[in-house]
Amino acid sequence: MDAIFEKVKATAEEINDYAIGSLEELEQFRIKYIGSKGELKNLFAGIKEVAPEKKKEFGQLVNQVKQQAEEKFNTIKASLGNESSASSKNSIDLTAPGEPITLGSRHPISIVKNQIIEIFSRIGFTIAEGPELESDWYNFSALNMPENHPARDMQDTYFIQQDPDIVLRTHTSNAQIRTMESQEPPIRVICPGRVYRNETISARAHCQFHQVEGLYIDEKVSFADLKQALYYFTQEMFGEGTKIRLRPSYFPFTEPSAEMDISCLICEGEGCSVCKHTGWVEILGCGMVDPNVLDNCKIDSEKYTGFAFGMGVERIAMLKYGINDIRLFFENDVRFLEQFTGIN
Fold first, then answer.
1. DSSP string, 170-225
2. Which has the closest alpha carbon to 320: 172, 111, 171, 125?
């Protein structure tokens, strides 16, 4: 029994005399004494050789040696760390050229979205926003799409499993409904934001994208007002001389409805693969607000009329900058994003 006590005291002396001059030697010290297979671990295991009345004394002695080893390890580690840091600072080559700092830039989606907002702000439109998690009423029903309406199949929707009445919004029209419920006409707003649809991701489609929708409600608003507003936007965004055409279409919340094309920016209307050799590229949908939508929002459809439109920001950006894959906007590839440095 005395032998095991003598072994503990001898280990304490070894620890005290152990010379350490580098981080490598410090690590060897740690492994030898403090590590999971070190000598202190073996000393603790030797308690089974000690008589019951001596176990407490033995345990206290081994703990003191363990504390001694840990204190020595931490003290020398801090000392060597400071020396290493000072050495590293002193080893800097002050004559070496500096590393260039890469400046960030706005994302192309933000650039185009801000341009759209700025253009429409010049003709009196203000911004209205709504939540991305939305109820069925604001995303569908108030927009003249009651339950089981076939128009709901036009949009593949993400529903919340815990509450099927809540969806990830499929368009920013929810902000239009909220605005019409809370404001009296005249109303002139644009609604930018992210939307979601359950679509297969490809070069031309994504499960998330960005929209800017517009709404104008007042007395005697006509389709001619809609056409003039969109023509102004086209000239400002894509340049003077860009032609537009409106084709009849169907949307449940507008009547009459139309899709608007612009003359292809790539081939200038001559025909190419981008415009499928038609000379035209679709950029948005629009129409006169359906009276049922006005009535749902407690706006007198006998007194007021209005128009609405909606466009995909990614589609505008792809046309404006000649981008052929929508996935590039979401991959955060620095090589792609660097092309937009200096563009506001």
1. SSTHHHHHHHHHH-PSPEEEEEEEEEE------SS--SEEEEEEEEEEETT--HHH
2. 111
Residue 88: is its pLDDT beyond 70? no
**Residue that is written with structure tokens 């052929």 in the block:** 324
Tokens of 288: 């006169």
DSSP 8-state symbol, 96 = S
The pTM for the full model equals: 0.68
**Residue 98: Cβ-neighbour burial (10 angstroms; 0-12, 13-18, 19+):** exposed
Amino acid at 344: N
Tens-digit pLDDT profile for residues 261-302: 998 877 777 777 767 888 898 999 999 999 999 999 999 999
At 96-114, the pLDDT tens digits run 788 877 777 889 999 999 9
Ramachandran bin of 332, using left for φ above 0, alpha for ψ from -120 to 50, beta for the remaining angles: left
Q: Residue ranges of the domains in the chain?
A: 2-90, 108-340
User: Do strands 208-218 and 305-312 pair parallel, antiparallel, or not at all (unpaired)?
Assistant: antiparallel
Architecture per CATH, domain 108-340, reads as 2-Layer Sandwich (3.30)
What are the distances in angstroms from CA 147 to CA 137, 176, 214?
10, 20, 25
- Burial class of 297 by CB neighbour count within 10 A (0 to 12, 13 to 18, 19+): buried
Each residue's pLDDT tens digit, 161-213: 889 899 999 999 999 999 999 999 999 999 999 999 988 888 888 999 999 99
Nearest to 174 by CA among 231, 221, 215: 215
